[in-house]
Amino acid sequence: MKSPLAPGIRLITSFSRDSWYRSFILFLTFLFYTAYHLSRKPISIVKSQLHRNCSTVIRPTDLNITNNATWCDWVPFDQDNYQTLFGVLDNSFLVAYAIGMFISGIFGERLPLRYYLSVGMLSSGLFTCLFGLGFYWNIHSLGYYAVIQVMNGLMQTTGWPAVVACVGNWFGKGKRGFIMGVWNSHTSVGNILGSLIAGAFVSTAWGMSFIVPGLIIACTGVLCFFFLVEKPEDVNCTPPQHHGDQESTETEPLLQNSSHADRNYTRSGGILSLPAFRQTGQLHLPVLASTLHLMLHILTQKRQETCRQLFDVGGIVGGIMAGLVSDYTGGRATTCCVMLLVAAPMLFLYNSIGQTSLGTTIGMLLLCGGLVNGPYALITTAVSADLGTHESLRGNSRALSTVTAIIDGTGSIGAALGPLLAGLISPTGWNNVFYMLISADVLACLFLARLVYKEAQGWCGRTPRVRGFKEI
After folding, report:
1. HEC profile of the chain
2. Domains and CATH numbers, the chain
3. pLDDT digits (tens), the chain, 472 positions
4. Which residues contact 143 (CB under 8 A, 6 or more apart)?
5. Beta-carbon contacts of residue 355 (< 8 Å; ≥ 6 apart)
6. Is residue 469 left, alpha or beta, with left meaning phi > 0 and alpha meaning psi from -120 to 50?
7. Which of 295, 298, 290 shows the shortest CA–CA distance to 419?
């Protein structure tokens, strides 16, 4: 009598070759961008060690101390202007990241994604380690650390356009919102892991808080070089259906018309310009991403590290739910708008009652994290992929890299402006900072209003129902 096939083998053989490859690429790119975010986190952890309250620190008996108030601080962050110096480091990274993101999309179109990501992760690992080596080399120059932050910011821009382009190449529109909602949790997972790894070394040797994450992202760069497959066709897998039956419902292409788009795309060397967004009514999407990124970064400025991790956990759930609902309803704009409309009163409640008890604080952080991060995750992943794989760009799939870079690059401007605005407004009271956040939330909803109206028309049968953000 022939024995039945082992359950584990039956499970393995139940998936097709294409499914295994897609799952592998999804896991691999998740790992890559987790490493990117993991390597960004140490600076926020180490700040507490660079400038401390030295009166609470046990003084070594063999240490010759000339200043009792700052003996334990790391020069040059031992002065009264240490907050300004920290701001220089933060803005050096954020401004370089915002500027570099627009350039990164151009390179992402021209270079093989496997090489581009590998070099980017190895370079990012190098500069992250160099920041930490400043501890062992006893470097006390602000210029050294600022230059490292600028270079690291530029290298970090290699990640997002490339990984979104790669995932967009492997997955069609059918369940893209849910898949990318789950996949986009790498941001929060990376933040949490980065905090834990950096926190493990910060009190003994803060240099290791940078070196260990730097080595991790460098190792993932090596992994990328050996295992990443950019497109299904490269391994004889079936490419995803980006358009399919929906082609007949596309009444207006991403650019003016397909032939014109191809000519412009070729003449510009593959660059999707901002006028391309304007022609389809999508110009507000980068600005919307900037508004949401501003909200995220101001919220993270006010919280302690444990609270930040709770906010990130809420963001994971919010991103998944936003993707799932948008796939089911076919309305990405409406999903984002509803979440933002609910977020506005929740932000007001968090400011009013969020600190009354531990349970309330945890609940409000989880809720606000989900409501704010959900729309941002949807716009920067599924919507970017929808636009970048639009039928008008057929044959120019690398445009996805530029679309993603434009949206995330503009979003990064909001990340740079957020802490700056919070610093200017906070002296008048944190209540005013939250009022500004609520105003930004309402502004984001206004950017979406026209698209929500178009989607509602589709549901009412007045126009064909379509998935994603698009002009009708």
Report:
1. CCCCCCHHHHHHHCCCHHHHHHHHHHHHHHHHHHHHHHHHCHHHHHHHHHCCCHHHCCCCCCCCCCCCCCCCCCCCCCCCCHHHHHHHHHHHHHHHHHHHHHHHHHHHHHCCHHHHHHHHHHHHHHHHHHHHHHHHCCCCCHHHHHHHHHHHHHHHCCHHHHHHHHHHHHCCCCCHHHHHHHHCCHHHHHHHHHHHHHHHHCCCCCCHHHHHHHHHHHHHHHHHHHHCCCCHHHHCCCCCCCCHHHHHHCCCCCCCCHHHHHHHHHHCCCCCCHHHHHHCCCCHHHHHHHHHHHHHHHHHHHCCHHHHHHHHHHHHHHHHHHHHHHHHHCCHHHHHHHHHHHHHHHHHHHHHHCCCCHHHHHHHHHHHHHHHHHHHHHHHHHHHHHHHCCHHHCCCCCHHHHHHHHHHHHHHHHHHHHHHHHHHHHHHCHHHHHHHHHHHHHHHHHHHHHHHHHHHHHHCCCCCCCCCCCCC
2. 15-53+73-238 (1.20.1250.20), 274-462 (1.20.1250.20)
3. 667 778 877 777 778 888 899 999 999 999 999 999 999 999 989 998 998 877 777 776 666 666 667 778 899 998 888 888 998 999 899 889 988 988 887 887 788 999 999 999 999 999 999 999 999 999 999 999 999 999 999 999 999 888 988 888 888 765 667 787 888 889 889 988 999 999 999 988 999 999 999 999 999 999 999 999 998 999 999 888 655 444 433 333 333 333 444 444 443 444 444 444 444 445 455 555 556 666 666 665 555 566 777 888 888 889 889 888 888 888 888 898 999 999 989 988 888 887 778 888 888 888 988 998 888 888 777 666 666 555 555 545 556 677 777 777 777 777 777 777 777 787 888 788 888 888 888 888 888 888 888 888 888 875 544 444 444 3
4. none
5. 361
6. beta
7. 298
Separation CA 176–CA 467 (nearest Å): 10
Cα separation, 409 vs 104, whole angstroms: 9
Contact predicate 105/404, CB 8 Å: yes
Rounded distance between C-alpha atoms, residue 101 and residue 407, angstroms? 9
| C-beta atoms surrounding 147 within 10 Å | 14
Sorted by sequence, the CB contacts under 8 Å of residue 65 that are 6+ apart come out as 59, 71
